[in-house]
Each structure stands twice: as structure tokens, then as C-alpha cells.
Amino acid sequence: MTTKAKASSVGKRASQSIVDVFRREQRNLLIRLVLLAVLVLVLGQSAVSWFALDGFEQELDPQLHQKATVVGNALAEQFTYATEELEIPVQGLVGVEEYFESVLMANDDIKYLSLFDDSGNLLFVSGISRGEMNEIMQAIENDEVQAHSYGSAVGAHFDSVFEVSGGNGANSELHVGVSSERVRSHLREIFLEVITIVVICWLVTFEFLLFFIVARVEKPMETIWRIMSEGARGKFSSWLPVRSSDEIGQLITSFNRTLYDLRHRYSDFVFDVKETQDAQIDSTISEKIEEIHHQVRRRFQFEKGRIMQIEAADRIRVPLFLFIFSEELTRSFLPLYIQKYAPTDLMLSTELMIGLPITLFMVAAMIATPLGGGFVDRVGVKKVFLTGTVLALIGFVGNFYAQGYVDLVLFRVLTGIGYGLVFIASESWVSQNARRHSRASATGVFVAAVFAGIICGPPIGGILADRFGFEATFLFSASLAVISGLFIFQVFGQSEKAEEDSNQKRTRPALILGFKGWLTLLTDLRFVSVLIFAAIPGKMMVAGFVAYLVPLYLNDLGHNEPSIGRILMLYGIATLLCLTIGARFADRTEKYGTMVSLGTIVAGLGCLAALLSNVYIDPTTAVVLAIASLGVGHALTLTSQNSIIQQVAERYRYTLGRASVIGAYRLCERFGMVAGPMIAVALISGFGYVGAIVGFGVILIGLISLFVITNLTRANTPMETEVGLANE
Amino acid sequence: MSNHNKTQKILLTVFLVLAFGITSLSSAMEPEDVPGFTRPFYVFAVLWRGETEVEAGFREYFSQRGIPVRMTVRSLELDRGNAPPIIEEIRRTKPDLVYTWGTGTTLSILGPLNPEEPEKFVQDIPGMFVLVAYPISAKIVQSFENTGRPVTGVSFLASIESQLKAIVDYGKFQKIAVIYDETSSNSRINVESLKESAPELGLELVVLPVPLGENGKPDPEKLTELIQTAKNEGAQLLYMGPDSFITRHGDAFTSEAIAVGLPTFASTQAPLNGSRAMFGLVSDYHTLGKLAATQAEKILVDKQNPQDLPVVSLSRFKLWINIDVAREVMMYPPMDMIAIADFKTSPQN
Questions:
Q1: What residues in B contact A88, CB-CB < 8 Å?
Q2: A59-185: what fold?
Q3: CA atoms of B47 and B55, how far apart (whole Å)
């Protein structure tokens, strides 16, 4: 290596590291910006929620008291009628406690009802024992009460008194008790619901903020750095496409002008050199000039420029998020909605009739995924994504107008096909646009969008369904699908067209993987090992553990539905929080296989922690621990799994088609979803709930050990081929 | 982007328009006004023992709706032998509708479903009955849905099940007794249904037919003895069905029952008004009359064939409690019944 070359390589390295430093700084700036925005939002929301809750608390007590008053007055009137009008002696009243019971049943805020005669003897009481009632009366008589404007707080109760006038002037007393514990538990419930909403707001804001910052600021700036680092190497030939007229757009415009002016000056300079050279009679001088001109041309390059494409993997994020969100809106009430239409006069059980549309939806999505992969390889991402949104849109609107069970099932299937198409289109887009060194980060975008949709959809859908009804919520889903489709138009600007066209010319693989294609894939050790030891177990955990075992177990432990929902949300939130870290780490080390193993081990250990339940931790904590570890584990593995598959897809992109490989992978992976609940049932019936959770942990760790072994036995071939490729 | 917004707006508008279109299409129009009448409709009413609240409700409905109705009222005065001259009068005056009160009246005037001598009855004029306890068993109609002849009516009894339910809800009764006229088909049918339903509600039933006198009719002198028998058998309550004989002697019957500490439950309104029954689950006669009038309106104004009109019944019944009797026998109604019952006092008070 010559000194000159060495020097230039040193300079190259130096400029590279400067760019890296600048880049890191800038990333920090953006992260700080997003964090600041979210922090402000969280603080604001917390303050508002706090005040709202406080106000609610102040509002709730008098309201409960008001309820006690309404009930008390109505009852007192009834008793007065019986004793005064009908002249029934208060001691002779019949069925009073049964009557009280029915009132308590209809008003669960009211804790007890009791009736005393004129000399203060307790005649009838419901809701609490006679002993407890007498204690309360004792406390009132001894003045051991906190007086409120609306009653007396005695221990855990608010007691209100109502007069019942008897015919002979002997007045009896009716006591209505509201449990203050009920008030507190109401508040706790509301507090948790407010937190849920705040977290969802936070996620939605984060999604959109990140999208705009990445698409509008970060990516254009990154491209400018790339051009500047080219400039540091003497290359001034590229330019940037202008996509907006905002500050960044203006910067790009002036940057392009600078580059243009430089090129212009250089061509003037070349012209002058030519002039001077031609004017020389002495050939040695002419050769000298030629030599110098050559040196300049070698160091600076102004011609053969190209448009620097702005990296686009992230841009699928918002449309995908919106689409997943639209489908997930229906998740919370779908079984109830189906039950409304399910025919009851058939031989089949209602559970089966409710399960059928949900299963068919999954089957439709499952079939559409590999098919959609084939289509993506032929007609491009945009058309497949749009077809998917249109099918889903028809499905949603159809469900709004559905008249019977058959319509309902058909439209659900249509939405399922759309879902499968959008899914594979988005994933193909990410794999097409991911650079080699940031594969995991790029797939992280895809996974994050899906998870954000899965987390935000059901609670919001539940609220919408509660307010507007099941059918109307389908219209909200339809509108979201439309907006998602419109975003796709924005994502696929004019520039992508050329790329897609060239894609089309290059690749024309078969629409559906043939026997040969499957054979190629299923003998590819990397493909198969990731599939069997990581992907299928992962899906098994989602379907069998998160969606099946945990709700049943928590219900068994006495949790109500909202509480179960919140614990399940932990899985998604844990995944989402750790996703970026996992992806960054995977990209830096490029040890995707190690990340897959690590994540699965975390998940497995989390499940094994259930062994400690009832000994060191209570059962609910064990479940929470298992769910959270599963979320963290999946955050670590998912992006790396996808990266490995993308590498495989990259290898077969001209023979099988990139999207077809991914589609095939997704299809196989879903066997885990089918197997999950069955395995859960078998484990639960064999070992009980705790045993089943431990069993899942054992399965995970056992399979991942096999994965590690297969990877070690062919230590020379695995990821290194890809690293080698990347270094070319 | 503005283009996208526009598309979005248009799509949302389309949804809304479609949604409203569907809902507005489904709302139905209600026919409102009654066309001018050239002459009043003519209803010929034949009663059993004079006018009741049913006829009052019947008239009130028409006057409220502004439908002119002329009514001729005749009464059999408790004797089916008085029927022939009234039938003669009906044939002569040709009314638009014949209205009959009670099983006996209906059978005397309109006759049974397929009479052996049809010329003895009014068969060619639309007929409508009220206060017939068991029109099918009495062979007046084929079934409630399809009467099988140009006659329809309104049913007035609450089902035996809901009557027994009211009894069980009132108090912890375990054994009830029914004293009845076994010559009356209504009573026999009623007792049969009681025998069937009482065990289902955990009630034991004591059945006591009134012995017949020399004239072949039930002997009122025997009632006191029967009440005592019921008491001795351990009955805690007397059941009073749609039985004209017991109803006629209602006051004495219920008073004597109270004397031995037995309250009475009534399934029709008459004993509650004219006797000392403690409680009952009955149709409100006034409302019943209005229901009958809606049937008559379909026949008179809409010119519908009564044969196409099913026999209808009220969907709500009245729980009556005579609080004086309850006080006397020291059996106060439970609080949840007080909340829904209508209270009255004894005729004496």
C-alpha cells in the first residue's frame, strides 16, 4: 500500500468517524426531543388525570349519598304507606328482609338496609349481620362518627337515616348504608382505567411523533450526511430529492444549489484548463497540464451523479399501525357481536358458532399471507397493500350492514384476507428497504407498529363499542382502514415507482412457491432452525399462554375482565419498550442468532419463575412476571428472527422471490398458533395451571438449546456469510 | 395531503348517508285518522246480571276515539230462559255486532261452535264475548288463534300458574282448599287445572265440591259445613275460581271463612268488590272493556271478519288486597307485594 493510499484511507476513516459522532449526537437530539414531548404529555396528562380523579372523588361521595337518599326516601315512603295508610304495625311487616335483599341486589353501591322501631330496637336488617348493625348504631349513639354534610361515616360505612311515620305517632327509622370501601374500589378501578388510557395516548403520540421526525427530519438529514461524507472523499456528484417545502426542504434545496454551483464552477475550471492546454505549443507543458488535470479528476468527482434515496423502511410504520389498530378495535367485543347473530337453533354449540368466524378469519389471513408474498414479488408492495386495505374496508362496512350469521362470516373472511395481504406487504417493504447493518432496527419498526396497534386497539374499541355500539365501531375501523390506505399514497411518492419498476424487470418468480421452492426452503438449515426452535414456539406462547392460559388462570384467581385485560397488556408494552434496545443491540453486534437464544431464555426463565409461586411470590405476581419476561424475551428475539429470515430471503430473492420466502415463513410460523392452545389444554389437564406455566418454560428452554446446538455445529457457515457479504 | 383529506371526507359522508338512508327507510307510517261515519255503528249487548265496569270501559274507548256507537243493552237476569225473546229482537233490529257477557249468555245467544239446531241462535251476525272463563272448553270457539266461526272475544283470567304464584308469594301457604259448584263446566275445568299446577308450586290441594240439593242444584246451606271441613283438613287458604254459584254467595262464604280464620283468594274481580276475599289476581274490568272495544273496532270500522281475529287477553293483571281482611286474619302482605298491589277495604267499612 502506498503512503498516499494509506493517507487517504486514514482520512476516510477520520471523516467516517466524524460523521458517526455527528450522527450519534443528532440521534440523541431527536431522542431527547421525542422524550421531552412525551414527558410533557405524560406530565400534563398526569396532572389532568390527577385533578379529574380528585374531582371525581369529591363528586362520587355526594353522588353515592344522593343515591342513598333516593333509595332511602322511596323505601321510607313505602314503609310509611304500609304503616300509616294500611295501618300495619311496623313489627307485623312481612317479608321486609327479602324486600331489602331485592333492593340491595339492584343497587350494589348500597351496603346495608335496616329498620328500627320507635324505641330503637333493630327489627330488620339486610346486607350485614345484626351484630354489625348494632355496633354501627352504638357508634352513632356514642358519637364516634365523622359527621359529613351528607351523613355519618361510621367505620367503613356512610350511614343515612330516614324517618318512617307510623299511624299512631310512633316513628320508626330506616338506615341506609353505603360502603366507603366500595367507593375506594370504584376509584381504584377508574384510576387504573385512566392509566390505561394515558399509556395508550402515550403510545399513539409516540408512534406519530416518531413517524414525522424520522420521515421528515432524521432520514433527510442522514442523507445529507452521506452526501457530505462523500464530499469529504472528494465526491460532489450526488444530489437529494426535494420532498417538502418545510425547513428541511429549504435546507435540501440550498444544499442542492451549492452542489450545482460547485459542479458548474468545476466545469468552468475544466473548460479553462482545456483552453490553456490547447493554447500550448510545447507538448511537455501540455502534458504537464494534462497530468495535473488528471490528478484533480482523481481527487474530485463531479460527474455521473445519482439521486440519493432517502431510506424508507420506517415510512410503512404509520399506515401499518393504523391498519392493525383498525382490526384490533373489534377484538374486545367480537365474541359478543358474533353471539348476537349466531343461530341458536342448530345442532352446533354456541361456543363453536362464536369461534368459527374468528378461526376462519385467522385461516383467511394465513392463506393470504404466502399468496400475498407472491403478488408482492410481481406487482409491488403498494398495490398489494392497497388491495388489502380495500378488502378490509369492504369487510368492515359489510359487518356494519350484516343481517345474519352468514354475511358476518363472509365479511370477516374478507377482512382476514385483507389483513394477511397488508401484513405481508408491509413486511416485504421493510425487507426491501432495510440496509444490511440495520436489519433488526428496520424490522423493529414493523414489529413495533404491529404491537402498538395490538395494544391500543382493544381498549379504544371497547370504549367505542360501549358508546356507539358494535356495528358503529366497524365504521370506525373502516375509516381507519381508509386513512391507512391514504397514507400509503403518501409513503409511495413518485420516486419509489422507478425502484419498483426495476424490481419487476429483475424478478419474475413463481406466484406460489412450488414443491421445489418449499424443498429448497425446508432444507435450508438456518430457515428451518429459526422456524422450529424460535418462531413456532414464540407463536405457541402468544396463542397458548398469553391468549389462552393466562386469562383462564387469572379468572380462576378471581380477577375481573378489565384487570385481566390490563395484565395481558403488559406483554405488548414490555415488548414495545424493549424492542428498540434489542434491535439496536442486534444490529451493532450482528449476532442475530445469539439474540434469538437470549430472548427465548429470558422468556423461558420467566415461566419457570412460576415454580416459586405460593412459596416466595403470590400467584398473580408469578403470572405478571412470566408475561413481562415473555414480552421482554420476544422484544429481543422477534427483530433478530426476522433479520435472519430476511437474510435468507435476500439469498433467494432471484430464485424464489423475497416476499414469497417471508410469506412461507409466516405461514409455517402460524402452526405455533394452532398448536399453542392445544398444548396449553394438555398441560393444564396434566399439571394444573402452575405446572402448565412451568411446562411452557421447559419447552422454550429445551427447544432453544437445540437451536444453540445446531448453530454451534455449523459455526463456520451461519451469520458470517452475511457479514462477509456486508463487508464487500 | 389536501386531496387525501377530501377523499376521506367524501368517504365518511357516504357512510353517513347510507346509514341514515337505511334507518329512515325502516320507519313505518301509522294510520291515524278515522274517516267520517255516515251512521253510528249498532252494538247489541246481552248481559248476565246488569251492566259492569266492562261496558263502561267499552263505551269510553269509543267516545275517546270519536267513533259513534249506538248500544242496546239487554240482560238475561241470571236466567238462560230469558234468551229467546232477546234473540228475536236481535234478528229484528239487525245490529252490526252482538256483544255477550259471560259463558251462559254467550251460549244462550250465540250458541256453541256447531249447534245441532242453529236456528235457535244468532249465527249470521258478528259476535264478541267478554268474561268467558274457558271459551274453548265451553265449546264457544275452536282455539284462541282460530275461533272457527264469526265470533271473537277477550279472555279475562290470569293463568292458573300466575294465580298460584301470587298465592305462594303472599304467604307461606302450603295447603289450599277449593269449594266449587261441580255442575258448572267452568268450575270443573278450573279445578282440573288447579290439580295439575298446584303440586308444581309445592301446594297441597283440598278439593270440596258443593253437594247438590233436591232440585239438582248446589245447596248453599252446605257451604258453612264445607268451610269447616276445609279448616279441619288443614287448609290455610280458600281458592275462589270463576264460579257463579260461589260468587253469588260470596259475601257469606268469605265472611264465614274469616270467622274460622281462613282467608280467600279470588281469580275474578267480582268477589273482591262484593265480598270479603283477602286478595286476588284479576283483570281490571275497565281495561278489559277497552280491550274488547279494540276488538270491536276492528270488526266495525275496519270491517274485519271476527273469525280472523284471535281471542286476546290483557298482558297485565291487577293484584288486589283487602287490607281489612288481612288485618282481621293477621296475615299482612309482604313488603314487595305492598309495593305493587292495589288496596281496598271491605264493603262494610
A1: 323, 327, 332
A2: Beta-Lactamase (3.30.450)
A3: 10
Q: Give the residue from chain A lying closest to B7, CA to CA.
A: A486
Share of chain A above pLDDT 90, in %: 2
What CATH code is assigned to A513-728?
1.20.1250.20
**Candidates B168, B172, B335, B337, partner chain A, best to mutate (most A CBs within 10 A):** B335
Extract long-range pairs of A38-43: CB within 8 Å, 24+ residues apart.
A38/A202, A38/A205, A38/A206, A38/A209, A41/A201, A41/A202, A41/A205, A42/A198, A42/A202
Triad A524, A529, A534: Cα angle to 5°: 145
**Interface contact A618, partner B, CB < 8 A:** no
Q: What is the pLDDT of residue B47?
A: 93
pLDDT attached to residue A233: 81
Q: Is the pLDDT of residue A571 over 50?
A: yes
ipTM here:
0.70
Min Cα separation A490/chain B (Å):
8
What average pLDDT does the structure give for chain A? Answer: 78
Q: For B162-192, how does the pLDDT look when each residue is reduced to its tens digit (9 = 90+)? A: 899 999 989 889 999 999 998 887 888 889 9
* Whether B334 and A475 lie within 8 Å, measured CB to CB: no
Query: Among A52-66, A377-391, A671-685, B86-100, whose mean pLDDT is lowest?
Result: A52-66
- Residues of B within an 8 Å Cβ radius of A: 1, 4, 7-8, 11-12, 15, 19, 22, 171, 323, 327, 330, 332-339, 343
| Residues of chain B found within 8 Å of residue A92, distances taken between Cβ atoms | 330, 332
**pLDDT tens digits along A149-187:** 556 677 677 888 888 887 666 788 899 888 777 667 777
Contact B335 A95 (CB under 8 A): yes
Q: Does residue B5 have a pLDDT over 60?
A: no
When pLDDT is averaged across residues A588-614 and rounded to a whole number, the result is 83
Question: Does A486 sit within 8 Å of B7, measured CB to CB?
Answer: yes
Same fold, A59-185 and A513-728: no
For residues B189 and B313, the answer to whether their CB atoms sit within 8 Å is no
CATH superfamily of the B160-282+317-344 domain: Response regulator (3.40.50.2300)
Bridge partners of residue A239, in order along the sequence: A307
Digit-coded pLDDT (tens) for B214-261:
888 888 889 999 999 999 999 999 999 888 888 888 888 999 999 999
Domain with CATH 3.40.50.2300 in chain B: 41-156+286-313, 160-282+317-344
Q: What are phi and psi of B127, to 5 degrees?
A: -125, 150
Position A219 scores a pLDDT of 73
Predicted confidence at residue B2, as pLDDT, reads 45
Span B41-156+286-313 CATH architecture: 3-Layer(aba) Sandwich (3.40)
Asked if A92 lies within 8 A of B332 by C-beta distance, the reply is: yes
Nearest to B297 by CA among B54, B67, B31: B67
DSSP state of B126: -
Q: Give the pLDDT confidence score for residue B58 in this predicted structure.
A: 93
**Do B335 and A85 lie within an 8 Å CB cutoff?**
no
Q: CB A95 to CB B330 under 8 A?
A: no
Instruction: Name the phi and psi angles at B347, rounded to 5.
Output: -60, -30
Give the total residue count for chain A.
728
Amino acid at A215: A
User: Which of the pair, A307 or B71, is modelled with greater confidence?
Assistant: B71
Q: Which of B332, B337, B338 sits opposite A81 (nearest CB)?
A: B338
B336, A483: Cβ pair inside 8 Å? no
Q: Report the chain A residue with the minimal C-alpha distance to residue B322.
A: A86
**B195-220: per-residue pLDDT in tens?**
999 999 899 999 999 999 888 888 88
Q: What are the beta bridge partners of residue B70?
A: B42
- Domains of chain A by residue range: 59-185, 513-728
First to last CA, chain B: 85
